[in-house]
Amino acid sequence: MADTKQQHPALSLAYRRQNAWDRLRQDEKNFIAAFCEEYKDFLNKAKTEREAVAAAQAYLAASGFHPLEKISMLKPGDRVYSINRGKALTAAVIGDNPAAGGLNIIGAHLDSPRLDLKPQPLYEDEGMALFKTHYYGGIKKYQWLSVPLALHGVVVKADGRVIPVVIGEKPGEPVFTVSDLLPHLAKDQMDKKLAEAVPGESLNVLVGGIPAGDEDLKDRFKLAVLEKLNHWYGIAEEDLISAEIELVPAWPARDVGLDGSFVGGYGQDDRVCSYVALRALAGIKTPRRTALLVLADKEETGSNGNTGMESAFFTNSIAEITARCMPGYSELALRRVLANSRALSADVNVGLDPNFGEVVEKMNAARLGGGVVLTKYTGSRGKYSTSDAHAEVVADVRRIFNNAGVLWQTGELGKVDQGGGGTIAHLMAAHGMDVIDCGVALLGMHSTFEIASKADIYMTYKGYKAFLLD
């Protein structure tokens, strides 16, 4: 017998979560597979902010972008980029409409939590050579114990020569590690709170164990390491003082799950948003409004410094673009361009993890596979340090995404009193522009192996492209 039961009319009024995989066509699934292979390659090349800028610059150049400083006047369709000290960049595609009407801006960050070498890192103790570190950003320190680590960075010699350093990524190369305490003797350690069980000053990295010279030579384990570094890179111990060397997980990004539905890897906060925004910008021709991408440094430590979003680099870049587009440029004209712009703060959010469901409020938590995440506010507890997007802004982005067939969801950074975090949204909003956080949901954020859904990566790419073209 046929089911004659009718649905209640009010059902059409209810909001219902969807899974992106249910909405994807086969051609989109094929595109996702290829797109995420290229994304994993980017993650493997871009384990530091300097490497991320270099990879982004290469991609922009291959996509027809040119250094901004080499172009005196800009016209619709022009594609330009600008690099800030090798750690941040802006890129733009000039639109048909005058810049005075504002830009469509996507802002993400390239830095990720890690271990940095101290200025004087090398010492020896008990027949071993070690590096002292200072952790960067918000980490759970125990996650960095007993994992293979690679050295990435640069050494700048007194004569100005810049020497790139990468050790631990190629097959057969040595890796490094922070040793952990065996459970048999860890009673006192395990009785402590997790935050106190691993002091920051104990994150010392094992780098050598074969001595130089004979037994009478002082510091011979340390000297043996210096001999290796000098042989490989031509550097001495003093050169480490003017170096920026980071320790990052040595493993590559990988597919996760029997069905390969997830990407696992280091640094997806926030290189996943950086990469899809880069791809979205490069994929457009001549937009209605000028489309601009900013990839900033130092977000994980407060966005300070002259490569962070609090620096003048962001406004200087827009000023340079505006001056090349607008006759009669002035400071007031720049302020109007900024105030008339709208922006997506492209950053990740927490995905609901069934293993730790108690830290989120499930009605307002993002799910992996639920699409790109709109985050109206971030901050902590009483929305401290958030820009809190206006209802009109949320509605505008809803319109753009719905019209483009982008599956989206909403998210929060955990329960109200659980904790929280911030993004660069409030720094963009300080210029008067409308802004909302928008990005990919992750499991294991700030860990050494973060997890993202391939469907969400695609929907974020699709959403960013639609926003830039609107």
UniProtKB/TrEMBL annotation:
A biological process term (GO) from this entry: proteolysis
Mention any one GO cellular component term assigned to this protein in its UniProt record.
cytoplasm
Q: What protein family does this chain belong to? A: Belongs to the peptidase M18 family.
InterPro entries in alphabetical order: Peptidase_M18 (IPR001948), Peptidase_M18_dom2 (IPR023358)
> Which organism encodes this protein?
Pelotomaculum propionicicum
**Cross-referenced SUPFAM superfamilies:** Aminopeptidase/glucanase lid domain, Zn-dependent exopeptidases
Listed name of the protein: M18 family aminopeptidase
Does the keyword field hold Hydrolase? yes
Source organism superkingdom: Bacteria
Q: Which Pfam families match?
A: Peptidase_M18
- Provide the cofactor list for this protein: Zn(2+)
| Enzyme Commission (EC) number | 3.4.11.-
Alphabetically, the GO molecular function entries are: aminopeptidase activity; metallopeptidase activity; zinc ion binding
Q: Which UniProt keywords apply?
A: Aminopeptidase, Hydrolase, Metal-binding, Metalloprotease, Protease, Zinc
